[in-house]
Backbone:
């Protein structure tokens, strides 16, 4: 699986957009980019995923560069409840191994009033 | 409401006393798995199941057993718990392999003394 690199931490003002970068320069053609978050020891929560195209859902937007070597998760209007550790991971499709999630360091996001 | 439930949420037990942590999902998901999360070690997969009666080892299966007799349930069994199994445990489920997203339970905090 491709390795990902994320900043260790970032702060964001409440009500502003939070842009979380992720580098995955060794990603291969059948690997998806996933974002999950974990709010202090709660169960990890799925946010969004994508392969090539940009994606948007009710929680966030995912922007993937054309060469797929990096992506950005955008939380459009951050709230205090968005304070969490955000994990960018790359998973290969259609295999049991791809379903095994191994969260690394992630980005610790602190939303401030 | 679509959800993954785990019971109990908290458990303190003694070495050697058999215990079972239940996991149930109401989304008709085929894939289910168990993880443990320890400080500094991230999320590690214990066992997974691709469907009823189909289970396989993850990365850290020693000391654990699982069964998948019904699609909705995937209990984790510790036959003889030891202190090194003190951890935060999560059950997860998904419709299938990637690109399907995984949904996590709220977690079970287990302490073995």
Residues:
């Amino acid at each position: 699986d491709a390795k990902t690199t994320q900043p260790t931490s970032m702060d964001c003002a409440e009500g502003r957009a939070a842009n979380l970068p992720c580098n995955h320069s060794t990603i291969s053609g059948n690997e998806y980019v996933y974002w999950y978050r974990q709010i202090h020891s709660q169960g990890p929560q799925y946010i969004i995923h994508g392969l090539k195209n940009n994606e948007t859902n009710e929680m966030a937007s995912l922007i993937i560069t054309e060469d797929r070597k990096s992506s950005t998760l955008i939380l459009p209007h951050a709230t205090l409840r968005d304070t969490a550790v955000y994990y960018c991971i790359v998973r290969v499709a259609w295999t049991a191994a791809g379903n095994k999630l191994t969260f690394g360091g992630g980005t610790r996001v602190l939303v401030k009033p | 409401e679509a959800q993954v439930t785990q019971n109990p949420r908290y458990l303190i037990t003694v070495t050697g006393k058999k215990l079972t942590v239940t996991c149930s999902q109401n989304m008709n998901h085929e894939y289910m798995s168990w993880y443990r999360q320890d400080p500094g070690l991230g999320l590690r997969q214990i066992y997974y199941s691709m469907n009823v009666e189909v289970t396989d080892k993850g990365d850290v299966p020693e000391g654990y057993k699982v069964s998948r007799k019904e699609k909705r349930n995937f209990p984790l069994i510790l036959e003889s718990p030891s202190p090194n199994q003190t951890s935060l445990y999560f059950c997860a489920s998904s419709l299938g392999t990637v690109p399907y997203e995984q949904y996590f339970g709220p977690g079970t905090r287990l302490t073995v003394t």
